[in-house]
Amino acid sequence: MIGSRSTLDTPFGPFTAVVDADGVVLAAGFTTEPEVRLLPLIHASLMPAEVVERDDLGTVTAAVRAWLAGDPAPAAAVPVRQHGGVFMQELWARMRDIPAGSPVSYTELATLAGRPLAPRAAGQACGANAIGLFVPDHRVRKGDGSLGGYRWGLEVKAKLMETEANWP
Prior knowledge:
By secondary structure, the protein is of the alpha/beta class. It is 35% helix and 15% strand. It contains seven helices and six strands. The termini are far apart.
């Protein structure tokens, strides 16, 4: 199976997405170094045999452009796939349900996933998330309102949250 990747310039830095042959997003984030920062995040069972550079990834690229224009709906609808247990998958699915501009805490995310006493697992799901923007872990913060962590840097997380907070 041959996968593809593409990088777009954004106000938050270069954004790269890696997709499988069917266009399902396997990894995405704010980097120009996919070999170092993205491909290692893809589980061996999902890794394409080869990943080629493309200018455009169709609906994936269109979804990123829509998000940049203030419409998060297309990004939430893009198919994604990452390796993880049942609860991890549930947490990632619930992240996709968090409305833009309405961040939740790790405890709130755990509650949305049916386990209110598992905020650490929610934090682990955010840390393990390989599909930034499409699985918007940037919308999850600590219970005290502080940012917590973010694979692509706290400055990027703050800017993403600020941008979404200012959308109508």
